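Hi all, long-time lurker, first post. I run a small reading group and we've been trying to get comfortable going from sequence to structure in the token notation. Rather than ask abstract questions, I figured I'd post a concrete chain and ask someone more experienced to write out its structure so we can walk through it together at our next meeting. Sequence below, copied exactly:
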Amino acid sequence: MEINMSDNQSIAQVKALFTEHFPFLKLEFYALEHKASEGNIDRTLFDSNKTIGDICSKHNSGELSLHGNQKVSALEQAFHDQYGLNVQVFRKSNEVWLQTTATDEWTLSEQNHTAEEHHH
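-- Answer (accepted) --
Happy to help. Here is the structure in token form:
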């Protein structure tokens, strides 16, 4: 799956595309980077109405490839390296969204599948 990362794309659009492919996962965009295996704090969360151009520190427009066999940590790293964006993947557990910091080494498919199994 490809996400077109142009400056005028809104955060909401990128998040919606991601969730279309991984219905039990979501992306959030943060102003600050989180350390490995630590979570992000909500007050640094970006408003979904902002555009990628508003928040990225590297203006590389183009396609960002995502696939189910990609580890969460690798996906987060790709957003950071290519666009200077700090993203965090969340997994749905019943009605709660969990940050996947403890399971960064899982693939996106594993995260999504686990969330689906726990979905009632």
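A couple of things your group might point at:
The two ends are 27 Å apart (CA to CA).
The chain has one domain: 2-117.
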